[in-house]
Amino acid sequence: MSTSPQSVSRRSFGRLAAVAAAATVGGLTLGACSGRSGSASPDAPLRVMAINHVWSQAIAGRVAEFEERIGRGVSISMLTSDQLSNSYNVKLNASATDVDVMMVRALQEQLLFATNGWLADLTDRVSDAAFDWADFQEAPRRRSTTAGRVLSVPVVTERPALYYRRDLLADFGGPPGTLDELMELSLELANRGDDFFGFVGRGQRSGAVSQWSSFLYSFGGDFTAEGRSTIATPEAIAAYEYYGRLLERTGPPGATNMSLEQAMPIFAQGKAAFYVDADAIYTNFLDPAVSTVQDTVGFAPFPAGPAGSRPHNIPSWSLAVNEFSLLRDDAWEFIRWASSPEMVAALQADGIPGARQSAWSDTETLAAFPAELAETMRISAENGIGHDRPEVLQVGRARDIVGRPLVAGILGEPVAAVAREADAEFADFLVRDNRHRES
């Protein structure tokens, strides 16, 4: 991912090769602050602000056809995650009009942006029969709605996958179908004296929460229920204890410091039997430049716990319209085009998982993925839960609180007492968070 903002205007630059050579722009420059008043110049480009991601790169390569449709140029600024967040904070606080289409994380930012009045209401627009809102998977579709209003349209989805070593499981009948089997096999295959681990996964306090969520759901728990903390219920404590025991007894040393960047290479370098993380990162294990397991890696659905297999299925990135945009109609047309059945099918056939069920039901769109992974993704997309973190305004703070018992479990400390302390802290946090939401 580039560390500097990139701007792409197809009218000016021609073909896809120009994307890489696009001029650097000042992504944090404050735009005009005229709110919703006034009108845009006929020559003004439609401005799209996006994460530098394979999806936005693919869209930039196709945007010339959209420019011809609306008779207006399109400028796409691609930034890192931190740059994008900082830019939104500066621009939207100032009611800037120089952003029209916004690439957002529905689970991380939408509630806060909605509370601040930064997102245009798309409810009537998605209700157009030709758009076919019902074609979007239920879990991502529900996450696009805040306080009864549709505020974003999902374009990229993500689920967990169980990555495993096929060569090591040949004598065990294949990958584990339950969490009990995952524990048994991880203990059986671990040889930590020789730096080989049964299981590797994220253990960092905040960063581990999203992947741990599928363990929580599969034990029958959740982060909240009816607005109240549920992280000290018997189901949540059992999920904390299980995950902690899995990493403590079969995982690598220093697991509590591991985020994606630290955990993933351990599996890629052939030093672990199992790994649970996002299905979107699968290419790391097929690339011989970074992986030694490209010929032996397998893909399986998330194992079933006491409540069954309940992985998350989330909209990792969505498109929204800036409430202060002077080109809201053109911004919506961009979203219609970029999230159309034809576009989603084309991008998914290139390996970018979308949110439309019609694409997931078309075997041709899944041909870009390894067959075992495609089936894993399809199963999780059908039964997935639509969130992988607490649904609150201050997501980062909530993850930090919820992650405390995770760390205790990985360190082999008693989990229940820490979970009760975290539960009390989270309960207080939820009261304050709701007050901010209502103010």
UniProtKB/TrEMBL annotation:
PANTHER family: ARABINOSE-BINDING PROTEIN-RELATED (PTHR43649), DIACETYLCHITOBIOSE BINDING PROTEIN DASA (PTHR43649:SF12). CDD domains: PBP2_TMBP_like. Signal peptide: none annotated. Coiled coil: none annotated. This is Sugar ABC transporter substrate-binding protein. It comes from Streptomyces millisiae. It holds the Pfam family SBP_bac_1. The lineage of its organism: Bacteria, Bacillati, Actinomycetota, Actinomycetes, Kitasatosporales.
